[in-house]
Amino acid sequence: MERPWFRVMGYVSIFLGLAAVICLMMRRWSPLMVGIAAAAVVIFMNGLPYGETMMTTFFDGFCTSFQSLFPLIFSGSLLAQVYNRSGAVNAVGDMIANALFKEDAGATRKYVSCILAMALASGALAFCGLNALVTLMAMYPIALRLMERANVPKRFVMGILSCGVYTFAMSAPGSAETVNILAMQALSTSSYEGIVGGIAACIVEILVTTVLTTVMIKKAVARGERFAYGPRDVVATSDAKCPNAMVSLIPLLVLVVLFNLFKVNIFSATMIAWLLSLVLFWKYLPGRGRKKRAEILKIMQAAGEQAFGPVSAVGSIVGFTTIVQSLPEFQNMLDAVFRLDLSPAVILIAAVCMIAALTSSSTAAIRIAVPIVAERCTEAGLSLAFVHRVSCFACSIVDTLPYGTAVIINLGIADLDMKGGYPPMFVATTLATACGTLVCALVMYFFPYLP
User: What's the pLDDT tens digit per position in 310-323?
Assistant: First the structure.
């Protein structure tokens, strides 16, 4: 017979494992080792066989994650490397900056313009269905150019880009992102359900992120922080000849069209865009003859290195969460949330947030929580549109905690540490999203007759 205290240890091990991840990440441990250490905590506290659990459960999750992420990040890195080395990023960034930044504009206006340009541009790509990781890789060098012009410290880059990629673009009515599509499949609803509440929530998310991030930037600049490229950032010299700005947009537009209109696999679409960028920007790449061919090898090597580190880090954390999800206590925690005697609207948000927090996955939250809670919500008088739209916003409140895979990937791409790079991401993906979710729920609850 299983002893009660042993079951308690199962629950304790889950939270201790998560605490270990957060603490070690904040102490700047390698995420690869953090996942292994946290997994060891859960394994030993539950009396599981260490070798067998690591070789099967942990590395099954690791390999599955690696297989799904590496092609996306590698192909996106190839494209970003060409944009960086050819100077195409300077052309696009300067075009946007010249349209937004006036020479006599104050610092605050430049900060706000930079934030909105980065968030709306990345959000537009993601909303159209472009994979979030590829969007980040494509927008990262352009974002740095904009931040350089506005003198926004680099550590804010992923927080601002996340406002576009992981918030309104993912949850808004009509989005082609996975979260919205999964809710459609689970509830047999349309992609535009809850359009009024959804639009209101999107506006709130953008507004909250812009205001709070601007305040943070002003405080950072007052402390002496300035924009500076990182040691791994490849920067084309400003005085070097670069492609025409409109020509520089062609590979990105081709990528979006291939993926959305022609339904080309995202990896294939990105590789085609990369090859097209090589053709269009060939004469702007450094070197001549053999040196230029050597530059191509450098691009591929740098892209591989840039992709391997973040993907391995994410795989380690996914391996840890795979062990957590295999525990019976994990399922018991989910069942306890669904049995709470609270308003169905609160149950919906709580269930979605809990699964997102434990799995660090917004898609897992939709897959698991929505089908279970939907019937209870509709029996209480809530519409399927309410369940659909509110769950799409709620699932992204806590999927980006410090141990979240999105956080690790983002900070890895930008070569930022948790202490400096995470606070801006927390503002955009947790605080702003929580506000947006609340607004969406209130609008749709008190005005159910609105579309």
Answer: 778 778 877 888 89
